[in-house]
Write a structure and sequence with these properties.
It contains 22 helices and 21 strands. The chain is an alpha/beta fold. Among the domains are: about 1-5 and about 30-65 and about 510-540, no CATH class; about 315-490; about 545-815, 3-Layer(aba) Sandwich (Rossmann fold). Helix 2 (about 35-65) runs antiparallel to helix 11 and helix 6 (about 255-310) runs antiparallel to helix 10.
Length: about 800
């Protein structure tokens, strides 16, 4: 039927447009919200179905997709560089920190850590149980355990199926050379395969349910384990400023993911401790070697210093210089004191030798006696005192006696003896002081000679002291470092902290149920919207009066609702049976509008046409004629669709004679007139199908027929052929007072409305009106009633589609509506 409608549409365009190329834009182009809402409402069940399918697909995805779990931990790396051992500062701290963290990341993902993981977690054998839908890994809960010895490694990563017959017997199956090998064995029995020597033993998880399940295991090689770890282990720098690293592992088994992360932390800890101990051991070795070299150098420097001290009889030359300078200064002061003593002795001698008596001038021996204490001769002060007393006594005696007196002479002799003794003592003391001065001079010369050699000794001692002191400090520093590293090695700890240890994940990271259902819901909604959009874009039929008004410039007389009281094979007169029905009211409204359009004429010719067959022009013609006839107007219906006559079928009458026989003057119109159940409504059928319908209509006899009918009827209604297929209808429309164009909702193509506009422009049909037929309640602006009918054209026209039969037919109709 769709192919026939396309042919009809092409004929319509050729007939109406005269073969001209379409150059005008569609009237009323743009988004039609009413049509869109109508399409959306009709598509709502399909949208709900698509949403349900989307949610069902999400459920199936979750049902048949194994969940993936992730366990993670956070490590804090304590930045501590071994370059600080010698006291050097690190330049570019941020870059150094990031570089160190990147190095730690690579260390964690290295084969070194992987080897320790494989040794500690036994990742080489994986155990699985087959379920109804999915298989599940039996991590740490396997009812059996496999020990193996590699023969040639040809069966790595090969599936070995285990089917337990009882607690002691099982069947082991595997594929070899494209063929399955299967054999029964006992628990603990050595099993020799091309690749392994296997032994299967029961575990504490073996129970009665084990016999009902199917198991298999895989023996992985190093490459498979490394690929597994690389694919699921993630190590990333979480916060460079805080020196934190995140370690996470994804797996279908939550406990396995946690164990691997914790074991990574553990083996990383062990590796860091071993690495740290190795570094400290090497540093101790270096320190020991440097200590040996330092001790040898220090011993030689000590020997050089000792040789220098023995050779120069001084350990510290600079202190010797100070001592010599101090000694010279002290000697100078002592020499000055000796010179003062010599001077004093000379003056005393001169005084004693002068024979001046006490009191003469200023010479007084008693004045010099106190200064004689420093000389160190105790007799000299006494003799000087005696000499002074004798002088005083002689002086007093001379005042009474003459010098020739014996007493005076005795006193003079005693004074002379004392004087001689004093002079001898003074000479002796002066000689002693002179010897001391000579000795000081000799000592002074010796010290000055030593002083001249001091700079050379200072230079030599400084040259010897510098390596000695450097080696001494270096040796002390090495001893201190050795002690520190010894203490550190006694309590070595890793330079990182586990801020957040791994835990058993309870919620899978993939698939996320909420997200999967959201995607399924969104997918269903998107597909539903897409369906609505596609159906809207592919919607090419007129569905409501708004589309008719938007796309056509003709006046709309009214809307006829759908009639579904009965299913009819052909058009029938229904308004006489249901005068109070909604369809009757709708046609009365159309009659009222017709009265307004032709109020000045008492006699009217009304033509009813459509684009193609099946749009309901015959149904509208007979029922509109019946409604007009019920208003006490005489109405006659002429069936000019002589190729596919239908009016007689609507009135359930024969079509033996009619318009065709009248126009060829075989019968008169009175002979062909047929009466109906309505007294004021008659009709003339089309009559036998002629070979030249168009020529008959152009015959003057047709105009004469109309003139005669005007004498007896108020309204002449003509059911014309479809103008989209033949031109007969256009010829009749030119004679009509009110040409009516029928558009059937959900049947007539929107392109047909262009034909109406072209008819108006090309033929000047300014009074052309339209009626929307078979409109659903949603296309009638709230009319809410309906009807249904069928048509059966033949003899050269396309057949109208009949009502779909069965569930498939109804669904197909629903899909296309």
């Amino acid at each position: 039927m769709a192919a026939k409608e396309e042919v009809e549409l092409e004929e319509l365009i050729r007939n109406a447009g005269g073969g001209e190329a379409e150059s005008e834009e569609d009237e009323g182009s743009g988004l039609d919200l009413t049509t869109l809402l109508m399409v959306a409402r009709k598509s709502l069940p399909w949208v709900l179905l698509l949403i349900g399918l989307g949610l069902t697909a999400s459920w199936l995805f979750l049902r048949y997709t194994p969940p993936i779990y992730r366990s993670s931990s956070v490590l804090k790396i304590d930045e501590k560089t071994e370059a600080g051992v010698l006291g050097f500062d690190i330049v570019g701290g941020d870059k150094q920190s990031i570089s160190k963290l990147s190095g730690e990341v690579e260390l964690i993902k290295s084969d070194l850590i992987y080897r320790r993981l494989k040794d500690s977690l036994m990742l080489d054998v994986n155990y699985y149980v087959e379920g109804t839908v999915l298989e599940r890994e039996l991590y740490r809960i396997s009812p059996f355990i496999v020990s193996y010895t590699v023969q040639d490694g040809s069966q790595f990563n090969v599936r070995f199926a285990v089917d337990f017959l009882d607690k002691q017997r099982f069947i082991l199956s595997y594929e070899l050379g494209g063929q399955e090998q299967s054999q029964e064995y006992r628990i603990g029995q050595p099993i020799k395969t091309p690749g392994f020597l296997l032994t299967i033993s029961n575990t504490g998880f073996f129970n009665s349910e084990t016999l009902e399940n199917n198991y298999y295991f895989l023996i992985n090689d190093s490459g498979a384990i490394n690929n597994y770890l690389n694919a699921n282990l993630s190590v990333a720098i979480e916060n460079p400023d805080a020196n934190t690293i995140n370690i996470s592992f994804t797996d279908k088994t939550p406990l396995k993911a946690q164990d691997i992360v914790n074991k990574v932390d553990t083996v990383y800890l062990i590796e860091k401790v071993l690495k740290k101990q190795e570094v400290e051991r090497r540093q101790l070795q270096f320190i020991d070697s440097e200590l040996y070299k330092s001790k040898e150098g220090l011993s030689k420097a000590e020997e050089d210093m000792q040789s220098f001290a023995e050779r120069n009889k001084a350990f510290d030359v600079k202190s010797e210089l100070t001592a010599i300078a101090s000694a010279i200064a002290e000697q100078e002061m002592e020499r000055q004191r000796l010179l003062d003593k010599v001077k004093l002795l000379i003056e005393l001698r001169n005084t004693v030798d002068s024979d001046r008596i006490v009191g003469q001038e200023d010479v007084d021996v008693m004045q010099a006696i106190p200064a004689l204490g420093d000389i160190g001769d105790p007799q000299l002060p006494q003799l000087l005192q005696q000499f002074n007393n004798q002088q005083l006594a002689l002086q007093q005696l001379l005042k009474s006696y003459k010098p020739t007196t014996t007493t005076v002479q005795l006193r003079q002799e005693a004074l002379a003896f004392t004087k001689k003794t004093v002079q001898d003592l003074l000479s002796q003391n002066q000689a002693v002081l002179q010897k001391q001065l000579a000795l000081m001079t000799q000592q002074r010369q010796q010290m000055e000679a030593r002083l001249q050699t001091i700079p050379q000794k200072v230079t030599e001692q400084g040259r010897l002291r510098r390596p000695f002191e450097l080696l001494e400090r270096y040796n002390g520093m090495l001893m201190d470092r050795k002690m520190s590293y010894g203490i550190a090695m006694a309590g070595t700890i890793p330079d990182f902290q586990i801020l957040s240890p791994a835990s058993v994940p309870t919620t899978p990271i993939s698939p996320v149920r909420t997200m999967v259902y959201a995607i399924g819901l969104a997918g269903g909604i998107v597909l539903g919207i897409g369906l609505i959009a596609v159906r809207y874009l592919m919607h090419n039929t007129v569905t409501n009066i708004r589309e008719l008004e938007r796309n056509s410039s003709a006046t709309v007389l009214g809307v006829i609702p759908t009639y579904d009281r009965e299913k009819m094979a052909v058009s029938k007169l229904v308004v006489d049976k249901n005068p109070k029905s909604a369809i009757s009211e709708a046609i009365r409204s159309i009659r009222t509008n017709l009265e307004f359009m032709a109020s000045s004429k008492k006699k009217r010719l009304i033509s009813v046409t459509s684009t193609i067959s099946g749009e309901g022009k015959t149904f509208v013609t007979v029922n509109l004629a019946a409604i007009i006839a019920s208003s006490e107007q005489r109405v006659v219906v002429l069936d000019l669709d002589m190729r596919k006559p239908k009016v007689n079928l609507a009135f359930d009458s024969p079509n033996i004679k009619g318009i065709s026989t009248i126009l060829i003057e075989r019968h008169t119109w009175e002979e062909c007139i047929q009466h109906t159940s309505i007294p004021t409504l008659d009709f003339i059928s089309a009559g036998p199908t002629p070979p030249n319908p168009s020529e008959l209509i152009l015959n003057p006899k047709f105009d004469e027929l109309l003139a005669e009918l005007y004498q007896h009827y108020d309204v002449v209604m003509i059911d014309t052929p479809p103008v989209g297929l033949v031109t007969d209808g256009i010829l009749i429309m030119r004679k009509a007072d009110v040409p009516i164009y029928i558009v059937r909702a959900n049947y007539s193509k929107k392109a047909f409305l262009k034909n109406i506009n072209k008819l108006i422009r090309a033929n000047g049909f300014t009074k052309l009106t339209t009626i929307l037929n078979d409109a659903k309640a949603n296309g009638m602006y709230g009319y809410g009633y309906g009807y249904g009918y069928g048509y059966g054209y033949g003899q050269g026209y396309y057949e109208e589609p009949t009502a779909p039969q069965g569930l498939v037919g109804r669904l197909r109709k629903r899909m296309s509506s």
